[in-house]
Amino acid sequence: MLLALGKSRGLRTIAIGVLTCVTAVALVLDNADARSRRHRAARGGGYNPPYAAIVVDANTGKVLHEAAADGIRHPASLTKIMTLYLLFERLEAGKLDLETPLKVSAHAAAQSPTKLGVKPGQTITVDQAIRGLVTRSANDAAVVIAEAIAGDEDDFAKMMTRKARALGMSKTVYRNASGLPNDDQVTTARDQALLGRAIQDRFPKQYKYFSIPSFTFRGSVIRNHNRLLGSVKGVDGIKTGFIRASGFNLVSSMRRNGRHLVAVVLGGRSSGARDAKMRSLLEKYIDDASPRRTAPLVAEAAGGADDTVVAVLPRPAPANRSEPAKAQPIDPIKPILVKTIRVKLDGTRTAAMTPPLAHMPVQPVRTHIGAIRPQAPAPQPTVAAVAPTPAPVAVAPATAPTPAARTVTVATGDPDATYALASASTRDAKQDTKRNEPEKVVRSGWIIQIGAFEAESEAKNRLDMAQSKAKSVLADADPFTETVVKDDRTFYRARFAGFERRSAEAACRYLKRRNFACLTIKN
């Protein structure tokens, strides 16, 4: 009896042991199968996002290949190309420089999953933010940039969409600065190719950031996600992207033997499959591209029938502007509008100018020789004008034959604009200008200089920015630009006059604390 009972218990123990082993084996097999499914998904198995592609000859603008190029897709991190486009505008205008610190908000720090890992209250420089976007595709850095420029990410996304329209990206809508999932954030392969060309044409210097293979951030080396850099001859950028709804995206630029392609692949099933497709397209069509540039630069579209966008320059914000409780935005960069007027010089030498646009008031002209305002017509048969130097020009009395009507363009929205009227003889106008040119203003005392720039507009922008950020020390200062030529290159010095030595040194210390270069000069 006891023997039978022992055998029964032994059999139950064996049965339980066998069942436990079977269960463990099943769990192992289930986990292995799950890993296998994830591995197949990573390789593209069972995952088929919508595909689109385009290859454009950037030298001619000709489309060499397209597949569903106008199909609506999600841009994913290709969004950051536009984020950087708007940032490069601010750098070009002097509203930011590469060492400007950008504050990290709680919203920016909360972005996921790919980011630099910065904390709320910390700062990163503009240079670090750019490098973080082009290498790691850092979502937190994208939001930091958005909040620095527009105040919040929603307003920045609206700016991005407006810029897309100005560039001709007719089907692109932005809802955030990073490309994180949003059903309403859409684009096309054709639009992305246009943006890929535009950012190179507009910002050739800053575009070089897209070619960096890695950068070191707080002790960690971050490598570029774009694996075609360094592995495909001639590839110099620009950006990868991925979210589940879009698949694996890539915009590429290749230059080889004078030829230049910009290509887009959207909807790759894996990063490897996407890269292989892009490599194949570039190699297939590079020999079909032209070695000569014949296409115009990609630029923002002109305005409506009554105005034309001729430049992109900053305007200072109103002094009494009150900001909401959010990040301080950079002043928006708005286009300058121009009016076309017809100037007819008949026997009585009278001229009529179309009034400026109602919403663009004419402001006094500020130059290095002082303020000049348009003069009212004199009673005698002459008309006064401001020459581009700028200086008053007296048009000679009517003794020459009446010339045909001529059309000139007058900038009406820029505080630094000048009015130019056509005279009967260019030679006579130049002679009159020379005879009537006022003497150069001599500024005594101490001067401070905050930079030297290749464009006069950049120098003036920097002066405006300094005045807006340092009103307490520059309220009575006299801003001006000074032209200097060195090694056949022209530079424009941005300067303030009207200081004593101590006040000049104090002003420089104040500006340096606000990230302005500054030096004092005894004039």
Task: Describe, in short, the structure shown.
With 523 residues, the chain is an alpha+beta fold.
Keywords summarizing the entry:
disordered N terminus; Alpha-Beta Plaits; 3 domains; single chain; alpha+beta; four-stranded antiparallel sheet; five-stranded antiparallel sheet; 13 helices; Beta-lactamase; 33% helix; 523 residues
Commentary on this structure:
- With 523 residues, the protein is α+β, with helices and mostly antiparallel strands.
- It contains 13 helices and 20 strands.
- It folds into three domains: 237 residues, 3-Layer(aba) Sandwich (Beta-lactamase); 129 residues, no CATH class; 77 residues, Alpha-Beta Plaits (2-Layer Sandwich).
- The strands form seven sheets. A five-stranded antiparallel beta sheet has the order 2-1-9-8-7, sandwiched between helices. It has a four-stranded antiparallel beta sheet with strand order 18-19-17-20.
Number-wise, the strands total 20
Which geometry do the CA atoms define?
Answer: globular
Largest sheet: 5 strands, antiparallel
- For the CA atoms, what is the radius of gyration? 31 Å
Name the strands of the widest sheet in spatial order: 2-1-9-8-7
Chain-wise SSE layout:
Blueprint: H1 2-42, E1 52-57, E2 63-67, H2 79-93, E3 101-103, H3 106-109, E4 123-125, H4 126-134, H5 139-150, H6 153-167, H7 189-202, H8 204-207, E5 214-217, E6 220-223, E7 235-243, E8 247-256, E9 259-268, H9 271-285, E10 308-314, E11 333-343, E12 365-367, E13 370-372, E14 384-386, E15 392-394, E16 406-411, H10 426-436, E17 446-453, H11 456-469, H12 471-474, E18 478-486, E19 489-499, H13 501-513, E20 519-522
